[in-house]
Design goal:
Number of helices: 2
Structural class: alpha+beta
Shape: globular
Oligomer: single chain
Order of helices and strands: EHHEE
Helix content: 25-40%
Distance between the termini: 28 Å
Length: 82
């Protein structure tokens, strides 16, 4: 399922965003980083940034949550492009 990303997702999402095999697969077009996070502080900071961007109506990022475990396993972003 999808839901707005939240700061409580940091530990779960760090597993995804610190995985060396996954990092080359991330689409970082128009982004200011490469989605390579190695610490919980980096991941938490990124989530706060995503939430600030959402509050400013720039874009929205949802967590992809596995229903059985209620674990955030990734994210997806939606935005408008002119």
């Amino acid at each position: 399922m999808y839901r707005l990303v939240q700061e409580e997702d940091a530990e779960d999402l760090l597993e995804c965003y610190s995985d060396a095999a996954s990092i080359p697969l991330f689409n970082s077009d128009n982004c200011n980083n490469d989605f390579n996070f190695q610490t919980i502080e980096e991941m938490s900071g990124c989530i706060r940034f995503w939430l600030d961007e959402y509050a400013g109506h720039v874009y929205v990022r949802f967590s992809i949550v596995e229903k059985d475990s209620d674990k955030a396993v990734g994210t997806v972003e939606f935005f408008a492009r002119n």
